[in-house]
User: Which sequence fits this backbone?
């Protein structure tokens, strides 16, 4: 597998390790060009694309939003069961109780400990 290293200030060397010994392939003036060469030597078949940090953050946000949407959909049964249990209550269902279900599912709160059945005397 090929890698690049910064061999000098402003110089990036592409190469690989052969039995623990560095074997250089080529030198490049910036790490983007070195990374493109590494990708090519490692068998990349598509053209490398450079994106800005803002574009990366936008893509990351979309991926996270999709993951959270899927997780939310999986919570629907649990929330529906919770609401069904309390449908006869005269009290209003507190938003905080539903929020706790969601926060636990996403790992922001620890899981509720299971209650052990107690023996009657």
Assistant:
């Amino acid at each position: 597998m090929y890698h690049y290293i910064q061999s000098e200030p402003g110089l990036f060397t592409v190469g690989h390790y052969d039995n623990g010994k560095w074997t250089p392939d080529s030198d490049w003036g910036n790490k983007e060009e070195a990374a493109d060469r590494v990708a090519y030597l490692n068998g990349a078949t598509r053209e490398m694309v450079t994106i800005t940090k803002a574009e990366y953050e936008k893509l990351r946000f979309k991926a996270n939003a999709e993951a959270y949407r899927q997780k939310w959909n999986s919570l629907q049964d649990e929330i529906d069961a919770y609401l069904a249990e309390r449908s006869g209550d005269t009290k209003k269902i507190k938003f905080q109780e539903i929020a706790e279900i969601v926060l636990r599912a996403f790992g922001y709160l620890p899981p509720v400990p299971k209650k052990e059945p107690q023996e009657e005397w």
